[in-house]
Known about the structure:
Blueprint: E1 2-7, E2 14-18, H1 20-37, E3 43-48, H2 54-70, E4 73-79, H3 88-101, E5 106-115, E6 118-125
Parallel strand pairs: 3-4
Antiparallel strand pairs: 1-2, 4-6, 5-6
Amino acid sequence: MDLVEISPNADPPVCKVTDYSKFLYQQRKKQKELKAKQTKIIVKEIRFGPQTDDHDFNFKLNHAKKFLEEGAKVKAYVFFKGRSILFKEYGEELLQRFALELEEYGKMDQNPTLEGKRMTIILSSKKKK
């Protein structure tokens, strides 16, 4: 039997006489249960070009709807190659239109931001699992 300090921050500190190996086993078991109860956030990415046409846009929009219905987050980005970075407004319009089309399925967490050659937007699902 060992003297185990249970709560060192309490006033006065709480101690208990118990088997230390059994105490460690119970602590690991509690940590494992807490880890199992955590929900994992899944982030799906969708890539656009600045000149993405309507058919491709609608195809990717349907995929995003499916992802949001499943409860995942969607990170959509426009990748600018070479000199296409000069037309940032096309990418921003595309992402704004994408968010507007998905308004009933998810909400926009982050406005379009330009990071290097990528303009990104993040949408999270309205539906809770």
